[in-house]
Write a structure and sequence with these properties.
- GO terms for molecular function: flavin adenine dinucleotide binding; tRNA dihydrouridine synthase activity.
- The protein has about 425 residues and is an alpha/beta fold.
- Helix content is about 30%, strand content about 15%.
- It has 2 domains: about 250 residues, Aldolase class I (TIM Barrel), CATH 3.20.20.70; about 80 residues, no CATH class.
- The longest helix has 14 residues.
């Protein structure tokens, strides 16, 4: 595929300036966020998520060293900014997502984390530290979930980021639960004291896999604890939330200030809407292909993402869906999927996204719940009855005051067979050589 010439000059199509040009701790409250996802959290997915209601979007984890020697280049035609390594694009973004974009770092070194953050800070609004990846490539180097058992290192990275980053760049962290609730609270206290703006808690322990139900009932006490610290920090729930409607259930159960969605958005990036797209084969897929082609998203990445899309089918038959996936699996580039893409242009698709963001600015989208849905610790007497949508992976809203996991939960869970949780790959980049 031929690439347009690159320039280092600013984009000709800058994002319309938001009223406030930086995030505040309040921007992490009452929102529904796109989770960091290597591969699946590509630029077109983030833009569709924003178009369809996501409040903030996290980029895929990128290991600190991977971005350090990259060259920042801007495509003058589209405005896409690429951080290119020797042979691959390490990270791509567009100015339109900057006001809502959190860049996630994988690191086990405060200096490298700061250098990585400084490399990208002109194009992002916040820096997040991954403290939850359980894969050996990450943990053996002391990164990801390994940080959970090295709180001194974890907090020194966050402290360094907060100290060295300009104040308009937020610093946040994403952790998993520890097997013991008390250990989790102790860790959370230290993390919140580093000066972060928000804390995401993936409600699984390091040894739990995706197929294990997230233990979201443990979050309520953590939320109360953080609120009790009086710093106004948002606690973001992550784990088994399927979309906008389901986020209400998750917030009612957990008291979390916001909810972050990964696999629900991987299947359908419009899940952030109260009316997510149905028949994704005819609605989302063609539009996604057109946009990706326009933005010159690497074909293999686009193909991977499109293959994950699935949703409620109304007019599309199983046979139609199968035929489309067959056509996709045999295609080697955008020119092979022209029939699926249709006649509209990718630029039109992009302009629709710009308009949707302009008409309904993501940071102003707020999930304000009815009074009483999020009772404080003192007000809470009766269990809330919450509605669980069909197909949710976490079907029974746990009763409040459900017993916490025993201290030896980690030991028990390590004996459960199952595949490893989906995990970031270092860099998350793509080979430019193969373009
Ligand atoms: C394809 C994929 C890639 C992921 N990559 C990352 C990542 O880069 N950083 C991270 O912190 N978590 C990553 N995760 C974990 C998710 O952010 C999230 O914590 C987890 O999937 C639980 O949320 P869910 O139940 O909504 O899927 C990834 C998950 C998936 C499915």
């Amino acid at each position: 595929m031929s690439r347009r010439p690159l320039s280092t000059s600013p984009s000709p199509r800058p994002a319309k300036r938001a009223k406030l040009d930086h995030l505040t701790p309040d921007d992490f409250k009452n929102g529904v966020f796109l989770a960091p996802m290597v591969r699946s959290g590509a630029l077109p997915t983030r833009l569709f998520a924003l178009k369809h209601g996501a409040t903030l979007v996290w980029g895929p984890e990128i290991i600190d060293k991977a971005i350090l020697h990259s060259k920042r280049e801007v495509d003058p035609a589209t405005g896409v900014i690429s951080y290119n390594g020797v042979s691959r694009a390490i990270f791509s973004t567009h100015p339109v997502e900057k006001p809502y974009l959190i860049y996630q770092i994988g690191s086990a070194d405060p200096d490298l984390a700061v250098q990585a953050a400084k490399t990208v800070m002109e194009d992002v609004s916040g820096i997040d530290l991954n403290c939850g990846c359980p894969k050996p490539f990450s943990t053996h180097a002391g990164m990801g979930a390994a940080l959970l058992t090295d709180p001194d290192l974890l907090c020194s990275i966050l402290t360094a980021l907060r100290r060295e980053m300009p104040s308009h760049i937020t610093v946040t962290a994403k952790i998993r639960l520890l097997p013991s609730q008390q250990d989790t609270l102790n860790l959370v206290e230290r993390i919140v004291n580093t000066g972060i703006s928000a804390l995401t808690v993936h409600c699984r322990t390091r040894s739990m896999r995706e197929k294990d139900k997230a233990v979201i009932e443990r979050l309520r006490e953590i939320v109360d604890f953080v609120e009790g610290m009086g710093k106004g920090i948002a606690v973001v729930e992550n784990g088994d939330c399927l979309g906008w409607e389901d986020a209400k259930r998750v917030r009612a159960v957990t008291g979390a200030h916001s909810v972050m969605i990964a696999r629900g958005a991987e299947s359908n990036p419009s899940c952030f809407s109260s009316t997510p797209l149905k028949d994704v084969e005819t609605t989302l897929v063609p539009a996604y292909l057109r946009l990706s082609n326009y933005l010159q998203n690497h074909w293999s990445l686009t193909k991977f993402c499109v293959n994950q899309f699935k949703g409620v089918r109304v007019d599309v038959t199983k046979a139609d869906s199968h035929a489309m996936h067959q056509a996709l699996s045999h295609s080697k580039g955008y020119s092979d999927v022209k029939d699926i893409m249709g006649l509209s242009s990718g630029e039109e698709e992009f302009n629709q996204i710009l308009k949707a963001i302009e008409d309904n600015p993501p940071r102003e989208r707020r999930m304000i719940l009815d009074a009483g849905v999020l009772p404080s610790k003192l007000e809470r007497n009766e269990p809330q009855v919450t509605v669980t949508p069909e197909g949710t992976q976490n079907p029974e809203p746990p009763g409040f005051g459900a017993p916490f996991q025993p201290n030896d939960l980690g030991r028990i869970l390590t004996t459960i067979p199952g595949r490893d949780a989906t995990t970031p790959t270092p860099g998350g980049g793509l080979s430019l050589a193969s373009l």
